[in-house]
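Q: Is it fine to ask for two folds in a single conversation?
A: Yes, each is treated on its own. Send the first.
Q: Here.
A: Result:
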Amino acid sequence: MNGFDDFDSLIERLRRTATVETVYGDPISTGDRTVVPVATVGYGFGGGGGDEGSGLGGGVGASPVGVLEVTPDETRFVRFSESRNVALALVLGFVLGLFVRRSN
């Protein structure tokens, strides 16, 4: 198998995972309400080669961003709050700052 075959195989594997289900999860229904999870999905790949050899790599990452809420009256997007992540980052920054200050 040459480098182009490897590259085509990698692209095909990524293409199979790039589906609607990757971004929109399975709907969950309760009564007259349906909730559909929504995520951001990113793909990346790269490769290189030369006289000594070649290599390929790829990856995928997903992060939940919210849900679609479907009722008989409306459909709305409910975004997950990022304030929790900001608060966690601030606390971690404060703790790291204390640690660095004590070690000096």
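Q: Second one now.
A: Result:
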Amino acid sequence: MFDLDLIISGLANAMTLTNICYILAGVVIGQIVGATPGLSIIMALAIAIPITFALDPLTAISFLISVNKGGTVGGAVPSILINVPGTPESAATALDGHPMAKKGKPLKALKYGLYYSFFGDLSSDIILILIAAPLAVLALQMGPVEILALMILAFTVISGLVGNSMIKGLTAAAFGFLLASVGLDPATASPRFTFGMLDLYDGLHLTALSIGALAMSELLHGMVNTRRGEKSAASIKINSKSKEDSHVSWAEVLANKFVAFRALIIGTIIGAIPGLGSTTAGFLSYSITKQSAKDPEKFGTGDPRGIAATETANSAVVGANLIPLLTLGIPGNIAAALLVSALMIHGIQPGPLLFEEQGELVYGMFGAMLIANFCNLGIAQFCMRFWAKVISAPKTVVFAAALLLCLTGAYVADGGTFAAFIAIIMAVVGYLMRMFGYSIVAFIVAFILTPQLEESIIQARLITDGDITMLVYHPIAIALLVLSVASVVFLGPRGNRKKKAKNVTAGDEKNA
């Protein structure tokens, strides 16, 4: 687990010329997608997965991670310049980034966002590297009964935290269970829900399903909500020649070091909890920073503390959301779930055994993450003015090109028209889920984890001989099940009451 030669070999593999070229390409693609309103990093990852089929596993994962990291930086560009978040996690950045740009300091705001994003991303990666292996060692001490209880806890927490209703979250997860059941039963090898179709004997392919439910449904949502003749155009130009308005000194960056460190802690914790994500981290960090400030009235007027709080926190999630994936095999968010599909395509099973079976790959991935951070910083610093022009691309062109790429990706990834047909169906299903408030995150995570859940159930039944009283010999499992019940209580009816009370209060304040 801690073989120094293995670690050095893995890091050396990450620094090959081929790997670095793919990291650079991933960062550039991610930044372009992030800077283009209407597109999303999830969409880019879903489309990019089929491209990685012919690549070495390390190169493939490095490329996808780089796309994810680049998108976090690129998403801040339209948030700051036109007050339209390029990605959901950059929405909180607009609160102070756009006012600073309107004051004639767009370059300064962009650089603030870049530097704090780099700090948050790099720091969370270092934390991941330091704690992932020890946590994996602890996870290996857990048997099938404990793993089953842990997965039940993960489902209840994700269903409760994502979306406005735990009932809808659990319904979305149940739908994921249902679709994941299509194919052959793992215990008896008998067909389930195949309806005599040979294409369904292997189940619904994750790539086609994720491209449809995530990428194409978002495109559908964007097309429906785009008005005729509407275009994305930057209303703020970044032609400032004043050094004070276009440069950020070390002293200015370090002036908010305590805000950044607090945001790093918030983002890392949020990222390590499955289901929360970058958007939650950014708004939570901003809210805490504003409430703890002596002059909260300055927030929302272009205060650099607001940019520091949001960009550090949402970028810290990028590395931290791999903690549950690498240690327990549970995706922290949708981006991590797509990385699971990429790993599985290359015959690699995520989880605590990954460090023993693929230690060189894991440490190579860690090295690639560190390289991607510095590439992200350099490319964004050099191309900042160009990314600002990307946001003026007409939505009609963007949506049409992205839709074509999605269908092509599904066709190539899963073998033909049947996969494309599944992607189209899931695009409609995903759009309806978004419209009615059902969590796509809970649905995707349930779909991915169901095979492992079924395997854990079979193993747990064999160990306990079907006797539920045997749980007394598994205190860790009992504790996890108690936490699952508690999460249903506190994130379910009680959580909904709190949300309704908050909405009523907000409505009263607005009316007043």
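Q: Anything structural to flag on that second result?
A: Two points. The beta strands are 183-184, 191-192. The first strand starts at residue 183 and ends at 184.
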